[in-house]
Amino acid sequence: MDRYDHRPATAIHPVHAVLLAATVPLFLGGLIADIAYSMTYQIQWTNFASWLIAGGMVFTGFALLWAFIDLFRAGRRRARAVACFALLIVTFALGLVNSFVHARDAWGAMPEGLVLSAVVSVTALVATWLGFSSLRMGGVS
C-alpha cells in the first residue's frame, strides 16, 4: 500500500459554508460599530452593534448545530471537526455574554463590549478558517 493517500480532500457542505461564512462579517461589523461608538459616543453605534451581534448569534447557532451533525460524519477529519465545533461553542458562549453586555445602556457597555466584540470576532474567524480548511493527505503531485 502506498504511503501517501492521493484521494481528494472532502469539501465542506455548501449550507455549512454559508452558515460559517455569515458569522465573520456580522461579528466583525459589531466590532467596527463598537469602535465607532468609542470614537464618537453616538448611541446609535451601540444599537448597530447589538443587532449585528444578534445576527451573528443566529448564524453561529445554526453553524454550531451543523458542526455537531458533522462530528458524526467527519471520518478522517475528525480532529479538525472537533476543533471547529469547540471553537463554535466558545464563539457562541462569548457572543451570548457580548449580547448581554450590549443590552446595557450605551455608556455601560464599554469597554467590556469592545473587548468582547474583538475576542468573538477572532474566534469566529478561526472557527470559520478551520471549517473551510480541508485535510490534505499525501505529497505534492
UniProtKB/TrEMBL annotation:
Keyword hit for Transmembrane? yes
User: Which N-terminal residues, if any, form the signal peptide?
Assistant: none
Organism from which the protein derives: Azospirillum oleiclasticum
> Keyword set for this entry?
Membrane, Transmembrane, Transmembrane helix
Q: What is this protein called?
A: DUF2231 domain-containing protein
Keyword Metal-binding carried by entry:
no
Q: Would you say which domain of life the source belongs to?
A: Bacteria
List each copy of the DUF2231 domain by range: 13-132
Transmembrane regions listed in the UniProt entry: 12-36, 48-69, 81-101, 113-132
